[in-house]
Amino acid sequence: xxxxxxxxxxxxxxxxxxxxxxxxxxxxxxxxxxxxxxxxxxxxxxxxxxxxxxxxxxxxxxxxxxxxxxxxxxxxxxxxxxxxxxxxxxxxxxxxxxxxxxxxxxxxxxxxxxxxxxxxxxxxxxxxxxxxxxxxxxxxxxxxxxxxxxxxxxxxxxxxxxxxxxxxxxxxxxxxxxxxxxxxxxxxxxxxxxxxxxxxxxxxxxxxxxxxxxxxxxxxxxxxxxxxxxxxxxxxxxxxxxxxxxxxxxxxxxxxxxxxxxxxxxxxxxxxxxxxxxxxxxxxxxxxx
Length: 289
What we know:
The chain has 289 residues and is of the alpha+beta class. The chain has two domains: 3-192, no CATH class; 197-281, Alpha-Beta Plaits. Helix content is 64%, strand content 11%. The chain has a four-stranded antiparallel beta sheet with strand order 2-3-1-4, with no helix packed on it. A hairpin with an 8-residue loop joins strand 2 and strand 3. Helix 2 runs parallel beside helix 7, helix 6 (134-145) packs across helix 7 (149-167) and helix 9 (207-218) packs across helix 10. The radius of gyration is 23 Å and the shape is elongated.
């Protein structure tokens, strides 16, 4: 096993371990003592635990089994294995963790419970794992029938919260919806919060040197356009290459410094990228990646 593989495995393991701790705090210190639900499989497990007075550390792995069976046909075996381990670890930590309820304020419970749980789920996804099987269901139905993953998860949770309102109370259902919304935003922020994407278009007489530096020091693919510069009163004057690269906002200063060391006169256009299909997030779940 190469050093890079060991390093990557260790990094993923640490992320998943930290994710489990965060999710368990959200559940044990906030949601479980107050009977609040979240969406997805976690919400199902909490609801079953409340109804039948069964320890959630037993219910959570059992409720995840059908989704892992679906995952067998949808996600890679490596991700499936890590997801099973993550769920088992979460169940064990919940069982042995001795957190007591921090507050009786329902708004704080819903907000911070969702925050901790969402950060945990998001961190697990970044580590190449899944802590909630509803994402697997969404991916499966998306690939098989073309439904939107977000729509599937939303519909799944509407049914769950509707059942909660009927079986428990409308108040718990409404606070659980708030928890779910906070959890969803926390997941998005954990995955993408520091990875807002920016597009850069670079025109330089030293294009080949900049391309080589990108591939060597940034380690990211680039796109090259053929263009013509010098349009104006004198007309087209020179055929040139236009470098197009999409990076995280946190990397832009590093790239600007790199370009400046090669060509201080390079023309750079920077713009926000609102949506990217595929890429880093997608590869955690897609079986073909």
